[in-house]
Amino acid sequence: MAASTNNHNTGEDDKLLSLETLNNRLSPDLWPEKIPGVTEYEVGKHSKNAGTPRWLADLEKDDINLLQEFGSLTLSQLMEKVRGLQNLAYQLGLEEAREMTRGKFLNILAKPKQQR
């Protein structure tokens, strides 16, 4: 009966056998970095530059501040801001129409007559 027990144990041992190899470059948990924090710094440094969209990189500081201001508004505050911008655009349109009419009456936009 002891012989059958040994055969049974070797079968169990074969199930527990792992063919995985340990590599110190692939296992930061087993082999921590020599200077703590260097890996996180390097990843963060590259992700900031690589993750910044082109349109965001071209913005000026005032534009970024305005985006942050709009981002901090509630939905109702943002809708009020949009209504204000629509009203401003409408007023500018009316003013432009008045100035164009004025220019037409003053003949500012007329083409100069060619002399022969």
From TrEMBL:
InterPro entries, per the entry: DREAM_LIN52
A single GO BP: regulation of DNA-templated transcription
GO cellular component labels: DRM complex
Listed transmembrane segments: none
UniProt record similarity statement: Belongs to the lin-52 family.
Protein name: Protein lin-52 homolog
Organism: Biomphalaria glabrata (Bloodfluke planorb)
